[in-house]
Amino acid sequence: MDAPRINRRALLKLASLTAGTTLLPMKLLAAAQTYRWQNWAGNQTAQPSAMHYPQNVEQIRALLASSNGPIRCFGGSHSFSPLVPTDGTLISLEAMNGLLQHDSDKSTATFAAGTRLGNASAAAWDAGLSFSNEPDINLQSLAGAISTSTHGTGLTLPSQSAQIKSLRLISADGQLHDLSSRDGDLFRAAICSLGCLGVISDITFQQQPRYYLREVTRVMDLDKALAVVEQEKDSVRGIELFAFPHGNTAIIKTFEETSSTEEILPPDDSNDLLEMVCEVSMRASWLTPTIQRLLGKFIEDGFKQGPAWKVYGNVRTVRFNEMEYCVPAEDGIATLKQVCATIRDNNINVMFPIEFRYVRADNSMIGMFGQRDGATISVHQYVKQDATPLFNAVEPLLQKAGGRPHWGKIHTMSADQLKQAYPELKRFNEIRAMLDPQGRFLNAHMRTILGEPSLDKVGQEK
Ligand SMILES: Cc1cc2nc3c(=O)[nH]c(=O)nc-3n(C[C@H](O)[C@H](O)[C@H](O)COP(=O)(O)OP(=O)(O)OC[C@H]3O[C@@H](n4cnc5c(N)ncnc54)[C@H](O)[C@@H]3O)c2cc1C
Q1: 222 pLDDT exceeds 80?
Q2: What sign does the CA torsion over 347, 350, 353, 358 have?
Q3: Ligand 1 touching residue 405 (CB < 6 A)
Q4: Whether residue 330 sits in one domain with residue 397
Q5: What is the domain-level CATH number for residue 308?
Q6: Is the CB of 200 under 6 A from ligand 1?
Q7: Counting atoms of ligand 1 from 1, which one is nearest the CA of 114?
């Protein structure tokens, strides 16, 4: 994803010296201007006309003033949906990272927005603080994570967006907006904004004094696991279910704070096992139910514990494509049962488990958890297999259950459907148009999902 390291000045000089004698240098020049971007799953690519890595706010403002065409930011490139691709300008805040300041008494911490979640958590830990919750990996940038309401699990725990105290947004005209809850709708829109309100340069989170976490893993029959989740969801800090419908098996993980400061983090070899069974299942689909049934033999009940951020952050090396919807928390288990039955009844060959989590309601305008406690249901397909049959079978069920798609994952919802799912989407669009009247921060996907016309002087995509 690095921009090609070509000495463009030397190339330009060569081109001007040889102009008129040969076309070759001009071709080389065109090659020098080609940038490439790709997301983690490899299902999204782009060839932007420019790619920038600003080091401070002034450089961001200068970029906004000087660039033409659409502008999109990218963080860790971990989104599955086409939020980032543009043939205009791509901006990464990778060079703007680190803990900028913190207040131990108030448990607040301000980070440069390009900081990767894992680095932010480690720096916060050293300062005596922890995020109150985190997703299951930590390679996302902070700005990227909040821009799609990235979340972990826990019925009383908020998503990353809802942990924000304040943030700085630079709008298309270069103006700085320092936003907090005092700014009402503007703040509610900015804490999950899909990168279309402007560039977020730093974020202050409400954290908590640092804590140790214990994660307990249990393997059991799926039917029993569904009952256990219903039973335990209100009493544990966090609970997560991985369902294997073909084998009627499940893994449950629960998360609790612990007073023990002992670090017990056994090496994670689950990626090797997962890759192996995905390869077998892809080639011999009839073996999928047997492999899933045997899971209890491969995976033992166990636990890990340590500094919270180390327990949250898993390593995922087996690539997949993912669809995730959030349904009302109270309908979560019933919807999950339907999803499992559909996968079984339609004999859809999928080795990856269905992931089920809870997240607390928040006040965001277009976050998945806006004004309602949510249960999230994610289906994943191994990257070498076509995910379409799985997604096509499951998505109507999730929509029927009142589901809202995770903005960073695959979905096929139209602007009209999204307006139903996100009642404040119209208001969000008004705020977006106020901050960015020319639609400079929109790419083709954003225009589609927001129902914006694609004709625009500066925003038009090919
Ligand atoms: C292996 C894996 C595991 C995952 N686990 C979880 C999980 O547990 N929970 C969950 O909810 N999601 C999860 N996700 C999804 C992921 O957290 C989200 O898609 C997240 O938005 C990705 O963040 P990113 O930094 O990679 O941003 P990108 O994907 O690069 O960008 C996401 C959005 O942020 C915007 N953006 C980035 N930087 C800025 C900026 N500085 N200013 C303004 N806008 C900006 C972009 O324009 C884009 O709209 C997972 C994804 C993968 C691949």
Answers
A1: yes
A2: negative
A3: no
A4: yes
A5: 3.40.462.10
A6: yes
A7: 41
Mean pLDDT of the chain: 92
Domain count of the fold of the chain: 3
User: Does residue 195 have its Cβ closer than 6 Å to ligand 1?
Assistant: yes
At residue 33 the predicted structure's pLDDT band, cuts being 50, 70 and 90, is low
Mean pLDDT over residues 364-390, rounded? 98
Kindly report, residue by residue over 313-329, the tens digit of the pLDDT.
999 999 999 999 999 99
For the CA of 72, the closest atom of ligand 1 is 47
| 307 bridge partner residues | 212
Q: How far is the CA of 95 from the centre of ligand 1 (A)?
A: 17
Give residue 30's pLDDT.
47
85 lines ligand 1 (CB under 6 A): no
Output the pTM of the full model.
0.92
Whether the per-residue pLDDT at 32 is higher than 70: the answer is no
Say how far apart CA 55 and CA 144 lie, in whole Å: 17
Question: Based on the domain organization, do 42 and 62 belong to the same domain?
Answer: yes
Query: What is the extent of the structural domain holding 354?
Result: 212-407
Closest CA to ligand 1's atom 41: 200
Q: Which residue's CA lies nearest to atom 11 of ligand 1?
A: 150
